[in-house]
Each structure stands twice: as C-alpha cells, then as structure tokens.
Amino acid sequence: MSIEKTTDPAAALHFLEEIVESDLAAGRYKSILTRFPPEPNGYLHIGHATSICLNFGLALKYGGATNLRFDDTNPVTEETEYVDSIISDVCWLGFEPARILYASDYFQQLYDWAKVLIMNGKAYVDFSSAEEIAALKGTPTEAGKDSPYRNTSPEENLALFEKMKAGEFPDGHCVLRAKIDMASPNMIMRDPLLYRIKHAHHHRTGDAWCIYPMYDWAHGQSDSIEHITHSICTLEFAPHRELYDWCIAQLGIFPSKQYEFARRNVSFAVTSKRKLKQLVEDGHVRGWDDPRMPTISGYRRRGYTPASIREFCDRIGVGKREMVADMALLEFCIREDLNKSSLRRFAVLDPLKVVITNYPEGETEWLETENNPEDPGTGKRQLAFGREIFIEQDDFMENPPPKYFRLSPGGLVRLKSAYIIKCEEVIKDAAGKITELHCSYVPESRSGQDTSGLKPQGVIHWLSASNARKAEVRLYDRLFQVEDPASEEDFKSTLNPKSLQIIDHALIEPDLADAKSGEQFQFTRLGYFCVDPDGTAEKPVFNRTVTLKDTWAKEMKK
RNA sequence: UGGGCCAUGGUGUAAUGGUAACACAGCAGAUUUUGGUUCUGUUAUUCAGGGUUCGAGUCCUUGUGGCCCAACCA
After folding, report:
1. A39 has catalytic annotation
2. What's the gap between Cα A273 and its chain centre?
3. Which CATH number describes the domain made up of A347-461?
4. Which fold has domain A107-213?
5. Catalytic residue of the set A177, A257, A273, A416
6. pLDDT at residue A10, rounded to an integer
7. Geometric angle at alpha carbon A181, from A175 and A215, rounded to 5°
8. Closest nucleotide relative to residue A267's CA, C1' based
9. Residue closest to B11, CA→C1'?
10. Domain residue ranges of chain A, discontinuous segments joined by +
C-alpha cells in the first residue's frame, strides 16, 4: 500500500518542513532520509503513531525515504515479540520502510569507534560504582568532579576495554565513559557513559556481546551509518544533541542532524509504556490490543482506520510546545472516514418487542433500503418486515419530555424504510416493567409510496422478529475520566469504571452474522461498529468504534 | 554554574513588522425517512510590565509561568 501525499502549496509549513525545504534548496542533500527508531520493549501507541506519520510523511512529501530501525541496545528489556508487533503496526498504518534495520547490526562498528575514542584520549574505563559516579556528577547548579580513573593512559584504557568486551568483569564492575567536561552546564556532557557490562542474551546477537552501547553512543552513529539526513526526536532529547554532534565530530563521520519536536499527547489517554504495561498487567484492560487502549493495536481492534489516524496526525500539526490533542478530534477523523465508507445495517442493542396488531399474521414482506446514502454505488438491500418486530428501548418513552421525536403512547413514528406506526397499548408485567408494545401500522405509509399525508417527526430503526440474529456488542467509553490522567498522583484512580459495557442480547440483521473479523459497519442511528475476532458463527461480537454524533443525548444532559 | 525548550480562543495549529486566521469543540438555524451527513451563521485568542516603530503576536528588555536534564533506560 502506498500513500499519496498531496501537497497544498498554500498550506503553511511546519518548522520541520521549513528545515527540510531550506536544506534541499541549499543543496545540502540530494534527497532526505528519516528514520523511525523504536525500542522493541513494548507496543506502539498513539504517540508513536504521530512520530511515524511525521517521519514517513516528511519523506513522502519530499521524495525521500524512511528506515525503520530498532534501537535494541538494552538486551534486558527487549524482545522479538515486540519487533514483530512494531513492524506490523507500522505497515498497518500504511507506511513502507525503505529498510528494516537494527542498532545491534552496528555493535562491531560501534565497538571499533569506541577504541578510536580511547586512543584519542577521549574515553576511559571507570571502575567507580554507579553511586560514586552519580555523586561526582554534580547537580544542575553545581559542577561535577573528576573521576579518579579519568587520567588512565589510552593504552591502559584500551586494554581494560578489551577485557570488558572479553567478559573478564562481572555486570556493573566498570563502564566506558567519554572524557568531555565534568563542569559542563549541560549535565549530559559530564563524561557520559558509553558502554556498560551486561552478561545478557540479546534477541538478535545472542551471547556474542557482554558489553552494550548506551543510547548516546549508539543513536547518532547509527543515524550516521545509514546517512540519515534528519533525525527527528522528541523534546526531551534536546540536551542530548550536543553529545550527538560531539560523537559524530570526534569520529569525523557523516553528519546526521537531530531536530526535536514536542511529544503529542491525546486527552483522556496515557501514552507511557510503563503506565500502559501496568494497565495490562493489573488487568484493568484485556490486553495490549484492548479496544480501550491507546495502542495502535488497540485502535485497530476498536475499528479505527489507518487513514483516520494519519488524518488526525496531520490535523494536530507539529510544534515545540507541550500539547494535548483533543480526543474529540480523533473521533471526528474516524467518523469522517467511516461515514463515507461504511455500509449501513440495522441493529437493536436493547430490544423492545412490538406487535403490529393490524398486520396479517404469518406474512412477511421485503422492503428496500440503501446500504450507504453517502455512496449510492453500494446499492440497496432488502429488509424483512412482519407482524412482530423489535425496536430500541430508548426509542419508546411512556412519559416523554418535550421535543422527544420517538414513540410514545398514542404517538406516531416512522420505521425507517418501512411504515408509520402508532402506539396503541403498552403491555407491562406484574412488576410494572414494559414488556411489549401493541401498535397499529398505516398501510398507505409504505416508504417510497407514502400517500398517508402523515409526517411523524421521528424515524427509528427496527428489526423483524422473523430473521433477526443475536450478537454480543461491546460498547466502549473513554478509559479515563479526566483529561490528563498522567498528571494525577495515581493515574489508575481516574479509570472509568464504565469504560466497557457488554451487551449480550443485541439483535442484528442476518447477513451481519457472516461478516469477517475487522469488517466495519454503521449501525444506523447508533454508531460505527466492527467485527471482533472473539466472535463465532453462533455469536458474533461487535465493537463500537465510536458513536454517531448525538445532539439529542446532548440535549437531554442539559 | 546552572543549561535547554516553550508561552496565540476550550483544544490544537497559522499569521515570518501591516485587518489575529483555520480546524475541532461549543452555541443558533436550514435541510434531512439516521436527532447522522450536508449547509449557513455565531461565541471566544496574542502570559505580564517596559522599550523600539507611523505600526508589534512578531523585534529588544525585564519578569512570570510550564516542560526537560543529576538512569550502568531510550
């Protein structure tokens, strides 16, 4: 799949596009190369999606390419399972990496470069403990102090470093540090760690290495090796840029450049791997792909389309200020997409039986209705109509408020694509609960050939009792009750207890029972739904992606 | 000895010294056999003080506020 990046010349450029355009105009690069560099230690979430869209989108717009590179320098936390899910998520979003690469591919090169640094007197092996190193680091307002190991000779350091690599020291025994400036106002530059010892199995290199490069020693050089022109990362890496450039300058290699943008958050969601992991492990959700999760796999299962997520990323823009995008915009994007593309079907989530007393017993007629009024090319379908039907409980009220357009005692309502009915009698059980409605229909009000002259305000959906099928429907609401759960002392205390409502007695049109996992529909008047993989032929399961805009519900809240 | 980044309606994003705009959200109306869609209208914005200028969201200056940096994580 490929995405057409249409460029509106009048559209304003964001700051990264400006940088790219000026680089291209100045002839600094013939074409650009970006990269998306996830660490394979968790599932991708909506924040990653914005980064993916940015990196791939930039390359697409300017005729460049994008590598997918796994930043797999920490064997303790990384797993192949995550690599696979990340690749599939990126592809699902509609992007095609030019190459799929791994920082671990460069371990030998990185090691050789570290030795160059050592021989140039720019790195040393430090046997101080982690605590000692931290203590000598200083504070933001106080200069650090030199390590006692800082002035070891290059030759000795080289021998020591080779011993580290050879596995002669246990974990944590020593580290390789760059020799820069313990008094730098930038804490990152106070002799940063380059290598640590971890006798751990790596998901790709196995047991070949027991020393692993730190982010700062791996990232810029990996970019450089691949000739990445624009290395785009989030704001918190801005202080690292000085070190990024320093490493590249020391080695005299291809000068990739780092640019930072503000992480893009979404309201009513958390986007931190740690927090998401907690939700999964504590059982607050059913898994990483739970449709309530802001993970890419969660949105996919929920029924969000790749196009809707890309559109969302485009619309929220890119900047350098901390921001929280409104979830309502994401919902707007998915409704906009699905409104155009999804077939309409009738489903009754909470059925109320209606007997049409003046309709002949045992008779069935077939009524035509459109599959998608937004796209006449999708044709029409036939609905069975008979004496017994089901309507939505919500579409009947015994004592309706003003402006209630639906059915009420003695009132009229239009059954969409069928007849106008009038509520004649409300049947209740001993407890006073409404069990069914007796209605009469107006024979000359048949949809499309209505000569009744009646004009009920309300139009409701319905299903024939003769052929409706059962289904489970899962209704999702926001996972959190507050806009910014991450800012709470305990984000889990703001979980929405009603984020999942399971309806096991819903009714659907018969052909819906054969829909394949992932297929999407608009349930008329209710919202957009997709088929969940949990379903079976006997009991299909539908996930509500998003409701339709509901001005009546809004009115009722007032 | 602190350094870096940032500040425009409710939320985002534009305006690159010359009428503060666009989208979402909100509100009001029209259309509608989905209280959907579509269409129209509308509310609401430059962190504060000082300066430069005919003119400042934009430049200068002083504040204020927010985020990041003292992981052998990325």
Report:
1. yes
2. 12
3. 2.40.240.10
4. Glutamyl-tRNA Synthetase; domain 3 (3.90.800)
5. A273
6. 56
7. 45
8. B11
9. A326
10. 15-102+218-331, 107-213, 347-461
